[in-house]
Amino acid sequence: MASDPLRALSRSLLRLSEQAQQVAPQDLLHQAMQTLQSLVPFDSAWWGEVSAGDVQVAPRNWLHGSMGLSRSFAEEWNALAAVDLFGQQSMQQLGVVIRERDVVGTVPEHPDVAAFSQRHGLHHCMALTAELPHSGLMFFVSIYRPPTRPEFSDGETVLFGEFVLHLLQQWHHRLQRLQSDTPGRPWDRFALARPSGELLFAGLRISRALGEASPCWNGTHLPPAVAQALAGAPCTLSVGKACRLRLEPCGPLVAVSLASRQHKQALAPRELSAAMLYAQGRSHKDIAATLGLTPATVRTYLRTAYAALGVSNKLELVSALRHQ
């Protein structure tokens, strides 16, 4: 690569580092995306947290931020996520930049996806999805250009990939600092929200619990009953029949966590099956073939199992599974 792009990347990463230290957590991702836009120009962008799907459950966006896109974008995408080959490929190749050229031509584009893309001007697309450690979910950034603009070049692909991976690292470090106030709170069982109810982070288990307690919940903003209770933190709140939450102030934000129980939460059957096969030495690919899942879903199940069982390596996993 030429020296000018390298200097531009260095300046952008320095700016990102400064933002990570100085900008309020609720504004960090949006300002970081503005820095990315000066490095790799784009017309619209979408970022947030997503879970991979399998043969029974479609991929799901749980929370997001955006630039230049309509408010209904995430809800529309969730409705067609099961047939979005571009999104699925990004979730299957974690840490790898995917462009629309990497997907076009493999399988005909689903008409609903084509209509969605045309409606929102998503002609040239570039995305990167990576594991969001300990949360059970994945962090993604997608940027777009309309047909009147050139496609993303190879050089821009490199710049985009380097920046997004650094952004994820900075964001995770920021979340770690916020999480350190209550170190015993498992990552997949808590969320961080503005006092208004807008989510900045949510783990997989609390997201699923909120979804089960509030079937019409679309993510990004807490369900109304929870959002209205934030002003009363610290407090405990019951939502639905089985979701009990603990609300606690966390600097300018509010931490929302699944209320602790005497027992560790049991793993779902497929999570337990994936964990047991992995403990037996099976690879992600082998487990996926055995259970009828994608490798990305297997990784999601294993992340959830590690967090739920409170383990950090395979030896600890084997020991924990003996007591399941």
TrEMBL record:
InterPro entries xref list: Sig_transdc_resp-reg_C-effctor (IPR016032), Tscrpt_reg_LuxR_C (IPR000792), WalR-like (IPR039420), WH-like_DNA-bd_sf (IPR036388)
Residue span, HTH luxR-type domain: 260-324
Source species, domain of life: Bacteria
GO terms under biological process: regulation of DNA-templated transcription
UniProtKB keywords: DNA-binding, Transcription, Transcription regulation
GO MF terms held by the record: DNA binding
The keyword Amino-acid biosynthesis is assigned to this record: no
Entry protein name: DNA-binding CsgD family transcriptional regulator
Organism: Acidovorax delafieldii
